[in-house]
Write a structure and sequence with these properties.
There is one protein chain. This protein is mainly alpha-helical. It folds into two domains: 75 residues; 33 residues, no CATH class. It is 62% helix and 0% strand. It contains four helices and no strands. The longest helix has 55 residues. The protein is rod-shaped, with a radius of gyration of 41 Å.
Length: 121
């Protein structure tokens, strides 16, 4: 009868393969959750900063629009003309030139440039 080789005996407790697979899967899911949570928080902070910047831009736009509206008011224009020593009056009837649509080339109407200068009759 042959003797058993004592060196080939394994006395360690081996983790079963299904349990090891389950542990690896759970660790993978936990790491994926942590990554996604961190990414969502980062995007949330960036979104909050961008919204704050947008609100600042909206306020600046409203302020500039108010300034522009007050600058182009008739009283403001008159003050600016007086400050620069300019005397402007409305044109006389003889100085006004009225164009009919037939007098303006077709390509000028298509580009929209003619409508700024010509009045329709």
């Amino acid at each position: 009868m042959r003797r058993r080789n004592r060196k080939k005996n394994l006395y360690a407790h081996v983790l079963p393969v299904p349990l090891a697979g389950l542990v690896v899967g759970l660790v993978t899911l936990a790491l994926a959750y942590l990554y996604l949570e961190c990414r969502c928080q980062t995007l949330g902070r960036e979104l909050a900063a961008l919204e704050q910047h947008r609100d600042t831009l909206i306020e600046d736009r409203a302020h500039e629009q108010f300034k522009w509206t007050t600058l182009k008011s008739p009283q403001s224009l008159e003050r600016a003309l007086q400050a620069n020593g300019l005397s402007m009056t409305w044109p006389s009837h003889r100085q006004v030139v009225r164009l009919r649509r037939d007098d303006v080339p077709a390509d000028a109407w298509e580009s929209g440039a003619a409508e700024q200068f010509a009045s329709r009759e």
